[in-house]
Amino acid sequence: MPVLFVGHGSPMNSILDNTWSRGFARLGQLVPEPRAILAVSAHWFVDATLLTSDVRPKTIHDFGGFPRELYEIQYPAPGQPELAAQIRARLGEQHAALSGEWGLDHGTWSVLRFMYPEAQLPVLQLSIDRRLSVQQHLDLARSLGELREQGVLIVASGNLVHNLRDALSRMHSGNHATPDWAQRFDDTIVEVLRQRDTQTLVQLWPQSRDGQLAHPSPDHFLPLIYAYAATDDADRASFPIEGFDAGSIDMRSVLFG
What is the pLDDT of residues 18-29, one digit of tens each? Predict the structure, then answer.
């Protein structure tokens, strides 16, 4: 299986017919149908590495202040506890645990509801441990690449630039221009991924100034690390979705393989 990183952006993309939601739908046509999906979402950012283990994971509406229609969305994909246990073993049982306290948050279902609208495929979600360094995330996630041989599609969901404060200020002022630092960071990541420059990728946050501006918090950057870690030098990076929303929300998606 290939590996996907998806820039999911605003929850509103879930109920709008726009460039981004149409792009999400096209992603489903670019990959073979998997037997299961492992999602890594920016929105499960906690003090542990956890895997959903429910037979029927709940749809989580992890946001506030949006239209009622958004809270009524359900994505009733089944879980697969046996696969969750296998993935935990790959990660190392001392490093990961199973959890029935989460489900599928909007970083996952806002993309998958367009890729696989019938919600027929088993979906598991993996948390991001905010205590780990970027290098530690990379090391932890390397074992996930073996899942590709079993027909598991890894879908990591975040944004390559995610400065929400800057984006909201631009929305309120009507200035939707992309700032120089955001464009530079996006350009840098594209080049790093094309060259498979692992050392530079790991150092982009928090060592670089553009990285700090692009990600005041690393939650939306780290899913890229999980996607990248599951690939190897034979996987070419392509970019099926490109562009910025609200100036400084990078909607670029990456297809590896």
Answer: 999 999 999 999
